[in-house]
Amino acid sequence: MPFLLPPVNPADAADVPADVLSPELLASLLVDGDDELAAWTLRNAMVGSSRAAVYDGILRDAMRLVGENWRAGRWSIADEHLASRTLIAVLEQLRPAATPASRVGPLAVLAGVAGEQHMIGLLCLEQVLADDGWTVSNLGADLPDTDLASYVARNDVVLVALSATEEPRVNALAEAVMAVRVAGGERPLAILIGGGIARQPGIREHTGADGVALTLGEARAFAARHRPADS
Ligand code: B12
Q: Where does the chain show beta strands of DSSP type E?
């Protein structure tokens, strides 16, 4: 697993060749627990690319490599857990700065449905929407639909983005969509589905959501379409 790092100083790196910023490098840094250099890698990838493009690209591909190495038995569960933990620390470092606009933008609520443990995609989506001026409440993984519904009922929510990865979570997803609809009442409120489950054919119709996004770029476009004109 040892990996030769390029001879760069995170503090003053500029004009870094694109091939240095590879998913392989990022995966190695994550599995080594090196959040500083991993954050540097992503920051450099964001020079000239949008946050959504970088997270849909090199970040996702790096975690796919982590998953492949884990499944193939080359990396252990401990390696995968460290990589995930490190990525969460990295994302904290890359958080967009809060601005007055980010406190008054339309409210988007993000949640992983009941039983869903994958939440890194939600952290990424939180930042992408915040960049676009949304106020974001990320309620995290494994949220019971009753709690999601009571949050929606108590707040002026415009967008709800729900995530799930695998087929066994389809019913929880449909229940969460229904709970949000009931809690939202007559309010115009758009419900988006994302995560691995988004690849499942017919998932939007099956759950009654308004949209499905395979990428953060698609989620961003969906959010823009459903943003109130006066916000
Ligand atoms: C890290 C990880 C975990 C960690 C999660 C840690 C955490 N805090 O999130 C832990 C260890 C908990 C875990 C558990 C499991 N995992 Co897992 N995991 C992964 C791994 C390696 C990376 C996932 C990740 O974070 N990727 C980074 C994010 C940014 O990318 P992404 O998830 O692809 O999301 C992109 C889009 O989908 C979108 N997006 C993501 N979420 C959302 C949400 C919304 C609302 C929107 C709009 C968009 C969006 O944006 C992202 C960027 O493009 C993947 C491997 C892989 N190929 O991805 C497996 C993987 C997802 N896991 C898998 C499995 C099977 C499991 C387990 C069932 C394993 C087990 N036997 O216990 C459990 C399930 C737990 C549960 N009940 O949910 C499978 C899923 C297979 C499938 N059918 O799709 C994968 C693909 C591994 C594999 N190849 O087998 N896992």
A: 107-112, 135-138, 157-163, 190-194, 211-212
Q: Which residues span the domain enclosing 106? A: 100-225
Summarize pLDDT for 27-64 with one digit per residue, the tens. Answer: 999 999 999 999 999 999 999 899 999 999 999 999 99
* 224 C-alpha to ligand 1 centroid (Å): 26
Q: Is 7 within a domain? A: no
- Cα 112 to ligand 1 centroid, rounded to whole Å: 11
Assess whether the C-beta atom of 40 lies below 6 angstroms from ligand 1. Answer: no
Query: Residue 229 pLDDT more than 60?
Result: yes
Closest CA relative to residue 60, chosen from 87, 79, 98: 87
Residue type, 94: L
Protein residue with its CA nearest to atom 30 in ligand 1: 60
Please report, for the domain that includes residue 130, its CATH number. 3.40.50.280
pTM of the model: 0.94
From the CA of 165, how far away is ligand 1's center (Å)? 6
Q: At what angle do helices 170-184 and 145-154 cross, to 10 degrees?
A: 20
> Does 12 map to a domain?
no
DSSP 211: E
CATH number at residue 47: 1.10.1240.10
**Residue 151: inside a domain, yes or no?**
yes
Q: Are residues 63 and 143 in the same domain?
A: no
